Amino acid sequence: MLQQTTVAAVIPYYERFVTRFPNTNALAAAPLDDVLAAWAGLGYYARARNLHACAQAVAAAGGFPRDLDGLRALPGVGEYTAAAIGAIAFGISAVPVDGNVERVVARLFAIGAPMPAAKPAIREAAASLGADPQARARPSDFAQALFDLGATVCTPAAPACGICPWLTGCAGRRAGIAADLPRKVAKQPRPVRLGVHFWLCDADGQVLLRRRPRHGLLGGMVELPGTPWRAEPWSAAEAVSHAPMALEWRPAGQVRHGFTHFELVIDLLAARARVVEAEGFLRPVEALAGEALSSLMRKCVSMASAYPSSRPPPARGGGEERSPLPLREGVGGGDPLDRARARPHHLPARRRH
Ligand code: SF4
Q: Fewer C-beta within 10 Å: the chain N or C terminus?
């Protein structure tokens, strides 16, 4: 849960999660959709899927494996997690190397190669620390002391070398390069992808949703229906060909969202129908918070639901649908996407490329 997130932000998610799934068997027995709903908002949804698959593997085996190879074979468990579980839960002599530990070790051994090329050398050096007799005697304490040293003393910008227990042996400090390690190659700007998603509301105030494929980005999460995401801008005609129903689609805001490898700009279009007949499923607006919506989709819901064009049509049997919104809100000429882009709102201007 702590990937790219602060402890303070994670605590309420963690508490809800362990209350809902108090042990491995409860997690294994739960439907994946419930697990994803409990994870919604944390990002990195592959972790939730792997956690669920891992719980099922552990429950089927009757317990956790007690060796590093067995731990590594569990879904979602890599080198770092296997070493952390092994050292902390089972007292196995292993040094888990996370970002904090990488930094401490790169400085301690003055490893100057840039990341990620430096990783093998860092792992080897970390393993040599774990070979110390005192570390071998208390693997759990040693692992957690390393985490804490990196988090509180050997911090990224300003290592507090004066209070560090490894002050005298630290090659990075002696060379005066500690604060520059580990070296990183300059980041390339993230590419931008563009998409259009559709807010479709029926007469009962229900919104059309769909579930993403189980695998891939945001796999298994719930979303507003939409186009694929791509580098080229969408024309209105192209975008509307992906709409769930042929309706009068109107601009309903724009959302930007950063993923690890790209930045996404979503144009939202809204329409209303007394009866929705489209692939997907309907949920009342007030129940959307309980759905497995990603942070991206929560932004989209928040943006689209605030637009006048997103309000539900009159109730069934309530006579003719109200006349359309004023023309400046409608699609009476021009490209709705262009006018959505032109609409002043608090989000930064769309990046052109
Ligand atoms: S002496 Fe300084 S740079 Fe070296 S490990 Fe300690 S805090 Fe980090």
A: C
